[in-house]
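TOKENISE THE FOLD
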Amino acid sequence: MISGRAKDTIPPAELNLTGDEQRAMDAGPRPPFRMTRHWFSLLNGDADDPLRRQVIPGTAESIRVAGELSDPLGEEFHSPLPRLIHRYTDRALVVITGRCALYCRHCFRRRLTGDNFGDITDKQFEAISIWLAENKAVKEVLLSGGDPLTLNDRRLLKIIDRFRSTRPDIVLRLATRMPIVDPGRITRSLVRGLGRRRPLWVVIQANHPRELSTEALRSIDSIQRRGIPVINQAVLLRGVNDDVEILEKLSRALVSAGVKPYYLFQGDPAEGTNHFRLPLDEARRLTEELRSRVSGLAMPVFAVDLPGGGGKVPLGADHVLGRTDDGWKLRTPDGREGIYPDPS
């Protein structure tokens, strides 16, 4: 397995930990700490660096507040088989592994994420393949984790091929932070293999424009050159990207790289993540300001996953103000109002 390539993992001793970070490390954080050499090279040395904040645990993670859940999206309730999550009629998610090259402190699946959860077994993905054959309403399958690209190429492609042979019509989505956190993992052999297994979409997570390094952009480009679309799902995080200038830079950098900003998620109420989440009214004001600055192409859908498995809910402002004698009164993202006449 590629996961945790020892030579590429930063030991805590190299990080000049603050007192708070050291206490969190000593307490044995979950998910565990892991940082790639590449991510380490992007840090600016500040204790409040947005990239550092995403990766190094702090004691705030030990605080539990009302409403936080170990399984905030109710995935266990919507799991007909081990590692299979089916919350929507037309799509399903498979937790390929619990491993990541780098563990995000805001992870909503922290109950699973880590080496102990391990990788999917042959028996498990065979059972899921049979389930897919019987459930024709499912048109898309999201391969997630952890990070599926911690598996080696042979194992990952074997899993994809098994699903594809069961359902040749299925559209696959591969959810991975690897192009961002460890661009060297995106090898020629990997992208060649993925390119042969379309229809396939790659879903990355970049939360701050500094994550889009030269190496990361090169790895994304190598995927796109194989005809694989790349989209981004970001999370709105206090102390990381809760600033409209940062969000604008991120969206523009993604679009320049040919990556669609797909979703910007309000943080899920996972245990120990309260310090990352913004009040919803503040978050909505921030994203509406972003909407007034960027095009539709550069604007992600701001949404939240309802706790308990209710699904995604868009959180944008209502631009339909009501009906008048002349037609519908509408408001543009930059605050102007106008009338749209209904056809007579």
About this structure: Confidence is low (pLDDT under 50) at residues 1-6. The radius of gyration is 21 Å.
